[in-house]
Design a protein that fits this description.
Elements lengths: L7 E4 L14 E4 L5 E3 L27 H19 L14 H10 L2 H4 L31 E6 L2 E10 L2 E10 L8 E7 L1
């Protein structure tokens, strides 16, 4: 790189060839093209002033968090029932978006999509809930974890036994600002 106007260039073969006292504005070029400029040393960092006052972070827990957790658990249970074949996807129409409804319909497992064999249960009713319909052993899902990045949004995750495997189930819940009704806007079974 050619020197700019007003620059004096010193080409040195070794570091020992560079004089200790260099005039300001001198460009020293060492082997390999390494260039350095002499001049004033950089200004020292300014002394720190008085410490900044400590600011309390805003309370990020919405006031209705307990009610949100309860509703999130209910909606998670409904989605889990669809995925395990215990509930028809169309029954969730009012609480899910059309995209989620399509996903739930497609994500139902092969064994869950088959109708359960109905047998006559108590009271002689065939196929009534709790009366001859096979139920999976144990709990429907694991612990439900809810995070609220915003007062009108909730992110939910849990585990779910599906066809002999434990899978992760994640949901996104949204509501209109200040509104009471939550809707499932995204679901993934991992």
């Amino acid at each position: 790189m050619p020197p700019s106007a007003g620059e004096t260039v010193l080409v040195a073969r070794t570091l020992d060839d560079v004089p200790a006292d260099l005039p300001p504005g001198l460009v020293v070029v060492l082997p390999g093209g390494f260039r350095m400029r002499s001049g004033r040393p950089p200004r020292p960092a300014p002394l720190p002033g008085p410490p900044a006052p400590e600011v309390e972070p805003p309370d990020v827990v919405p006031p209705d968090a307990p009610a949100t957790r309860v509703r999130a658990a209910e909606l998670t249970r409904l989605v889990a029932e669809v995925l395990t074949g215990r509930r028809a996807p169309a029954q969730l129409g009012p609480v899910v978006t059309p995209q989620v409804l399509r996903y739930l319909t497609a994500a139902r497992t092969g064994t869950a999509a088959r109708p359960a064999r109905s047998t006559v249960g108590r009271g002689g009713r065939a196929g009534a809930p709790g009366c001859g319909t096979p139920r999976p052993a144990g709990r429907w899902a694991g612990r439900v974890h809810v995070a609220q990045p915003h007062p009108d949004a909730a992110e939910v995750c849990t585990t779910l036994p599906v066809t002999g495997r434990t899978r992760a189930l994640v949901l996104r819940l949204d509501r209109r600002p200040g509104g009471p009704h939550w809707r499932v806007t995204a679901v993934r079974l991992l």
